[in-house]
Automatic annotation (TrEMBL):
Protein name as it appears in the record: 2,5-diamino-6-ribosylamino-4(3H)-pyrimidinone 5'-phosphate reductase
Catalytic reaction annotation: 2,5-diamino-6-(1-D-ribitylamino)pyrimidin-4(3H)-one 5'-phosphate + NAD(+) = 2,5-diamino-6-(1-D-ribosylamino)pyrimidin-4(3H)-one 5'-phosphate + NADH + H(+); 2,5-diamino-6-(1-D-ribitylamino)pyrimidin-4(3H)-one 5'-phosphate + NADP(+) = 2,5-diamino-6-(1-D-ribosylamino)pyrimidin-4(3H)-one 5'-phosphate + NADPH + H(+)
Known EC number: 1.1.1.302
Family: Belongs to the HTP reductase family.
Top-rank EC class of the record's enzyme: oxidoreductase
Keywords on record: NADP, Oxidoreductase, Riboflavin biosynthesis
Domain of life: Eukaryota
Stored InterPro entries: DHFR-like_dom_sf (IPR024072), RibDG_C (IPR002734), Riboflavin_Biosynth_HTPR (IPR050765)
Molecular-function GO term, any one: 5-amino-6-(5-phosphoribosylamino)uracil reductase activity
Role played: Catalyzes an early step in riboflavin biosynthesis, the NADPH-dependent reduction of the ribose side chain of 2,5-diamino-6-ribosylamino-4(3H)-pyrimidinone 5'-phosphate, yielding 2,5-diamino-6-ribitylamino-4(3H)-pyrimidinone 5'-phosphate.
Source organism per UniProt: Ambispora leptoticha
The keyword NADP belongs to this UniProt entry's keyword annotation: yes
Pathway: Cofactor biosynthesis; riboflavin biosynthesis
Annotated Bacterial bifunctional deaminase-reductase C-terminal domain residues: 32-237
């Protein structure tokens, strides 16, 4: 058995336990959300200014592509489209599977509709004559606000993308993740499992929103350094309730506003893939 085949088999076993159908909540009102990303030992997910870095080793990358097959949608922010130009498909599979696997639905959050017409997500669905390259590869769904440029929307839809307008959060003007998941989970879209892959703003937004069910983090034995892009803004993670140096003159309400409400991890498991360690956990939020 080749190294790739062995890694693929190990990934299948590892992920089947995590995403067993027996764990599905049939009373769930929204899609199951998995948040996943790869980080260095110093908690960096990209280089300076968000520059793309290859952090995961080949074996854990096989695991990530396998995990995509357990979901019917893969979600990233527009920043990831610009920095990585991803395809968001499951490619590192066994040869027989590559030809038959139904690819997940690419989902992009883009409040200003900046999505580039040159993106791989558009190139991979059309031939030069306009016909489809591969019927298994789906055109991207782009979610934007009502402040988008209608002419840009027309160009994107002509290129094969589907554009959806959703609500924004009145507090910060960002796209409403609650409305997003409601839209994705409801007919006619009807997705049941969504894999969120980044970037850092998307990771933080989903974690602090209470909408993540499963966390899968790949930790690579490398250091990126201080110029790299961190997973979190550490300054925003301080829980002032537990800070002995917190300003005692602040009211409880003021302190509470500074707590993002990040979750606890339960049912934690670890698995080594090549040189990387993959951690999986269910997330529990305070009610």
């Amino acid at each position: 058995m080749s190294l790739s085949s062995s890694s693929s088999q190990e990934a299948r076993i590892f992920l089947s336990k995590i995403f067993s159908n027996e764990n599905d909540d049939h009373n769930r009102k929204r899609a199951f959300v998995t948040l996943t990303y790869a980080q260095s030992l110093d908690a960096k997910i990209a280089g300076r200014g968000g520059k793309k870095l290859v952090i995961s080793g080949h074996e854990s990358m096989i695991m990530t592509h396998r995990m995509r097959t357990f979901h019917d949608g893969i979600l990233v922010g527009i920043g990831t489209v610009f920095s990585d130009d991803p395809r968001l498909t499951a490619r590192l599979l066994d040869p027989d599977e590559e030809k038959t696997t139904i690819q997940p639905q690419p989902i992009i959050l883009d409040s200003s509709l900046r999505f580039p017409l040159s993106a791989q997500l558009l190139k991979q669905i059309k031939k030069e004559d306009g016909s489809n390259k591969d019927v298994r590869v789906k055109p991207p769904w782009i979610f934007t606000s009502d402040k988008h440029d209608p002419s840009k929307r027309e160009l994107l839809e002509r290129a094969g993308a589907k554009v959806f307008v959703i609500n924004t959060d009145p507090k910060d003007g960002h796209l409403s993740l609650t409305h997003l998941l409601t839209t994705l989970s409801s007919a006619p879209l009807s997705l049941t499992r969504i894999m969120v892959e980044g970037g850092s703003k998307i990771i933080n937004s989903f974690l602090s929103s209470g909408l993540v069910d499963q966390l899968v983090v790949t930790i690579a034995p490398i250091f990126v350094g201080g110029d790299g892009l961190s997973v979190f803004d550490v300054g925003k993670l301080i829980n002032h309730k537990d800070d002995e140096n917190a300003d005692n003159n602040k009211s409880g309400d003021e302190n509470q506003e500074e707590i993002l409400g990040f979750p606890l991890c339960d049912n934690v498991t670890y698995k080594q893939f090549g040189k990387d360690i993959v951690m999986s956990a269910q997330l529990i939020y305070d009610q």
